[in-house]
Structures are given as structure tokens and as C-alpha cells.
Amino acid sequence: MLTSFQAESALVLVREREDPQAQVHSATSPFEPFEVPDANLIIRSSDNANFKVHKSILAMASPVFKDLISLPQPSESEIVNGIPMVQLSESSELLSLISILYPIGWVMPNSYEKVLHLLAACQKYEMVSVQAFIRAEVSRGASPKPKGANAFHAHAFACAKELIPEMEHTARLTLNHPMTFEVLGEGLRLFEGWALRDLVDFRKRCVDSLVTCLRSFLKVESSGPSSSWIGCPEVMPSRSPWEIRRQDRVLPRWLNQLLSQNQNDLKHQMFTRSLNIHSRIHHQYVRALRNHANCNFCWGVHKGDCSSFYWALKNKLVQARKKVRRDCCSQSGLTYLSPKNRYSY
Q1: Which residues of 182-191 are buried (b: 16+ CB within 10 A; e: fewer)?
Q2: Domains detected in the chain
């Protein structure tokens, strides 16, 4: 039997974990409450839906629930048909995660925002296995990704709830969009100061990595990724291999301009444009080469080496962005994400 001090401490713990922002505000009707045979506990949602469950199942899934249901029930506690009832602050939609513990068929929410709220509820009640199951479903593509400004909103929520894998995932999604006041809109209010600073720093480091990647393609080396383009008569009139070796090797002007322009755009427009340079580079490449249509040398290289050069450039840009990891820190400044326990989608 717990002492009164232990009981009060456990109740305080649960109340501190309760957060009305963790509820999903949706226009959908509440989830249908479910019952299981021989249930000995009722979980009641904030919208008064009852979930009849087993104490033992709930205790195994959540240490928080285990502590809660182990407390002596006060005399004024509600009893429904002889079964004790526990009132929680979450909506029935959020408490549907309890159904994952039973083989009754559970459906993933139809929005990423709702998934984040479920994961936050799992974190609040320390339902580790349920949280892992939901994340596995997300990685399998069972839930749509947030689009546009919603990526920033999702990131702000993930940071507020310290959902570490989702902080990394949503930070990457924001790179696909400009990071301006117009895009963030009212969502800017959702960010805590440290979270916004970290996201800006992450974006800057991604830009630095992309710029370094482009610089490697601007280097004219005999074994470099752009070596096949050495010899354009517009910039190197001498055509014999011996004369080319003696001259300063330079890239065709159109290719140099293409790579240099993207470098400058990244540096000066890192917030006003998306960082999807890998998806824009092909169109820019084709347009620049067409404007250089009279050069038989460059068109010959294009026909013979186009695919390998373009795909090498695109893949390197993708990898340059992917290798930058976000430093996921809490408001207290503690780092939670280490290379060995990062979660990726």
C-alpha cells in the first residue's frame, strides 16, 4: 500500500504531464469506444468516451499508467458498473492509441499532425512499444507527409514535445520550402526561441555542405568529376591533348556559370528559396547547354557522358544535404541525438 505522500507525488507527476495542447483539434467525430472481455478499468477521454481495458495490459505498456492505477482509489472516485474509472485529459482520438494494445484493428490518422499528437501522448505515458509501432508505420508510408508551411508547424510541435526522431525528420522537410515570414505566417508563434535558432543553424550548415559539393565540381582536375568537360574550344582553343595539358584547364563557360550561379544563389538566397537544388539542376543544365548549341565538343561530351555526369552531380548534392545532421537540443541545452541512436525515415 502506498503512503499518502507517495500517492500525492504520483498524482502530481501525472498532472504535470497533462497538457491541453496535446489534444488533437479536429472536426472528425470521436472514436468509437471499445470494450474487451473481463475489463477491470475504464479510461475516460476528455470528450467522455469510455475505453474498457485490462489494468495488467495497460501497466505493461506504460509505467505511468502502472503508477496511476496502483494508487489507492479515493472514496469519491467514480465507479461505472462496478469498474473503476480514470479520467484523462486526452481526446478519444488520442486515446485510440490504447487500442493498439489489442488485436482489434487500428487505423493510422490521416494527417501527420495527428500522428505527432499521438507520439506525444505515447511519450507522456511512456508507451515505448506503441510509439515504436507508430513510427514504423510512418516510415512505411502509412501517413502523409506535411506539405508547405505545415512542415514548419510540425517541426515546432516536435521540438516543443522533444520528439527527437520527428525533430530530425521535419527539419529536413522544411528544407524543401523557403524559410520566410510569408511562408511561416502565424506558425512562427509556435516556435520556441531555441528551436527556431537551431533550425536556422541547420539550414545554414546544409547550405555550406551544398556549396562545398558544387565547389568540387568546379575544380578542374584530370580525375575530377568534371574532367570530361575539359577542352571546350570557346575557352581552350588548343585541341591537341599535348597542348591542353600545357594550358590551364578550365570548364566550359556555360557549365562554370551554371555551377557558380547555384553557389551564389545558395549563399544569398538560403532563406528565400528552397534547398531542392538537386531537383532544379537538370532543367538548368539542359537550358544552359541548349544556349551553347554551336559547340560540337560540349554536345559530344553531353551525348557520351551526360547521364554519368548529371547523375553524379545530382547524387552528390543529395548526399551533401543528407549528411548534415540536425543538432536536436532541448530548451535546457542538452543534446539528445547521438550518431548511434538517430532515427531516420
Answers
A1: ebbeebeebb
A2: 4-144 (3.30.710.10), 205-322 (no CATH)
